[in-house]
TrEMBL record:
Residue ranges of domain HD-GYP in the record: 171-295
Pfam family, one: HD_5
Protein name: HD-GYP domain-containing protein
CDD domains given in the database record: HDc
Gene3D superfamilies named among the record's database cross-references: Hypothetical protein af1432
Matching InterPro entries: CheY-like_superfamily (IPR011006), HD/PDEase_dom (IPR003607), HD_GYP_dom (IPR037522), HDIG_dom (IPR006675)
Signal peptide stretch: none
Record-linked SUPFAM superfamilies: CheY-like, HD-domain/PDEase-like
Coiled-coil residues: none
Lineage: unclassified sequences, metagenomes, ecological metagenomes
Amino acid sequence: MSKNIAITIVQDNKTINKTYIGLLKQHYNVKLIDINAIITESFINSELMIIQINLNDPNAIAPLKSLMALPERSHIPALFLLREFSRREIIQASTLGATDYTTYPCPEDSFLQLVYNMIHKSGKKIWAQLSETQEEALKVSLKVVENTFRNASLGLEVSQKDVKDSCNLIIEATAKDGLTEWMNTIRQHHVYTYRHSMMVCGYLLSFGMLLGLSKTDLQMLAVGGMIHDIGKAKVPLEILDKSTALTPEEIDIIKKHPEDGRHILKKQNWDKVMIDIAAHHHEKLDGTGYPSGLK
């Protein structure tokens, strides 16, 4: 541990337990920032950002979303301190872009070890672990995913060629250098929908390789994983990125995304298999899935 390593702690005025701050100051250069007073210079040289705010407070969530979306923050891991290990708080933290999370208070040794591990596995260090092939595949595919969702939301072309070409790069990189570092790097991306699409792509590709599938079938799996949630491009961001519980009405809107995905891809003459993946990825074997209740 080193006093030369900077940690930025982001809090709101409702933060109660702050005893860990003194603990961290014994080992690191710690800066305290109010969630409503953040500027880029506040954290630009930090190796870790610790977030301790009330995740049920909309007044704190709005500026936190803005912070987490800043390009300057994307390489800095974010540790969320939760009040409790509840499903709701975990989903909130994950949606907001948490690299990791823990409850506090917790044992001091465990807390310091978690902080140490996160600093030494930060975004910059993870990118540095990628091979040239992996880095190129990740940069290209992330850009393609971003363009694909943006174009779909605007009613513009969703290019099959760009998606397939980027997936071919992923297949090549995975076959050559494996998937672990690639997936670890994806986990640092601040936009949940993009992160989720890329990780589904990676998991499907890994599964297909384990089964010994042909390159054609691997491409089909990878492309399907990348675009399966394309219908979410039509979901309002205030619902898609909401960190608190969805209302029944908002859940109904979210559940329209498979049909929206079908319409987006069908309108642009995508392969039927890809259209089916977008339309049916929430179906279940027992018929309780949606939108068609297939068995």
